[in-house]
Structure formats: structure tokens, C-alpha cells
Amino acid sequence: MTTRTPYAGFAALIEALTFIIGFALYTTVLMPAGYLDSSTPVQQKAAFMVDNQGLLYIWNLIIYILFGFALVVLSLGLHDRLKASTPMLSQVATTFGLIWSGLILATGMTANIGMGMVAELHLANPDRAGQIWQVTKLVESSLGGGNEIAGGVWVLLISLAAQRARLFHPGLNLAGMVFGASGLLTVVPPLQPVAGPIFGLGLIAWFIGCGISLLRHREQAHWASA
What we know:
Elements: H1 5-33, H2 42-51, H3 53-82, H4 87-122, H5 126-144, H6 149-165, H7 170-184, H8 192-216
Helix pairs in contact: 1-3, 1-8, 2-4, 2-5, 3-4, 4-5, 4-6, 6-7, 7-8
């Protein structure tokens, strides 16, 4: 077994867990509060951020910082497994994986620094705090959420490489191609409301499948071609 493979397997499961926590908090706390609803006044959103600063700080650490670090481990671990069979494709895919990790880490740092600024301004100037909230969310969305170009390309290329190298089950590779393509479709505004959830929810299953496969199979084990 390659040195990074077991770590990559655990990293993939951590990735899935961060997605699950993110969706759980979104549906149970943020959505009911209208925190990400465009019709909610920004002053109200800023007030919600201040009132729930601790929770949101931990959420950002999990879905952005922890996700970004785990993605580096997973990207390099997959590169170890794929580079012999698909050297160029694996290298390009790994590059996009590291780019995605950097964008996600930058998103998390921006989110937490912006949240601190909003909290400082809120009591003295609620309107200004609302403006800072808007700017912070704009930067966050631009880096790691408004579209999924880097993530979509990485998942798509890794799935293509894994299929060629017979690293994972063909069904898992096909699912990765579909989910990766859905990430790319988030750049089309009318498709974003559908493509985004498909990408996010689909990656939960994909990460779990990758993690289990990496932990279960030794270096020389390959799936039989379909």
C-alpha cells in the first residue's frame, strides 16, 4: 500500500463528514433563519451572524478549513495511486485539487475575518455592519460556493483517471463524472439552483465511496474492467 493511501482514505471520509455537517446546519439553522435568503434584509443577516458567531465560526472551520486540509491529503493520495497508469491526467487533476483546496481555505479565512469585523461594527453602526456582511458573502461566494469550477474539474478528471486505471468500481467512477459535470454546470446561472445541490449532495456519496475503496484495497488490487 502506498504511503499516502490510508491517509487519503480517511481524508475522503472526513470530506464527506464536512459536507454532511454543512448541509445539516444549513437546513436546520441557516435556512429557517433566512440567513442566505436574498429577500432577508442584510441588517437582519448581520444581526443573526453576531448572535450566532460561535456556531458560525465552528461551522466555517469545519466546512472550509478542515475540508481544505483534508482535500490536500486526498488529492496527493489519489495522485500516488493514479500517476503510474495515467501520469498526465493525474497530474492535471491533482493541480486542480490543490487549487480547489486553496480556494476553500481562503474562503474560510475570509468568512471568519469578515465575521469578526461585522461583530465589531454591529452595535455602533448596524447599516455599516450589513454592508460588510454583503462584501464578505460576495467574496466567499466568488471563492468557494457561487460556482464549482475547480471542484467540478477535479472530480471529473479524477474519475476519468480512476476509470482508466481501474482504481475504483466503474459505477463510482461514472457517478464521479456526473457529479463533476454538475459542478461545472454551476457556472450557468439558470442551472445553478439544480446543479449545485447535485454536486454537493452527490459528493457525499462519492467521498464515502472513495474513502472505503482506498482503505479496503491494497496497491495491486484493481477492479476488473466492466
